[in-house]
Design a protein that fits this description.
With 77 residues, the chain is α+β, with helices and mostly antiparallel strands. It is built from 4 helices and 3 strands; from the N terminus they run αβααββα. The two termini are 14 Å apart.
Length: 77
């Protein structure tokens, strides 16, 4: 398992809370997560903990937590 930083774990936890609070939403836009959080989430995409897709106007990105991301939070808490 890849080690993640405390700040990355917090960003994953924020994304997980969004999914838990809004289970009907598949992903969340940067505007709903904050720039700092999304900067950290982008670093977790290559590790397979977060999925990022582009869509909508401009370079709008949407993020969703993966099973690996949920497992990383569980392992480190």
């Amino acid at each position: 398992m890849t080690t993640i930083t405390h700040r990355q774990r917090d960003a994953l936890a924020t994304l997980r809370r969004r999914h838990d609070d809004y289970p009907d939403r598949a992903s969340f836009a940067t505007v709903h997560l904050g720039e700092g959080t999304t900067a950290l989430l982008r670093k977790l995409v290559p590790l397979g903990m977060v999925a990022a897709t582009k869509g909508g106007p401009g370079t709008r990105q949407f993020f969703s937590i993966t099973d690996a991301g949920r497992a990383a939070i569980t392992e480190t808490t």
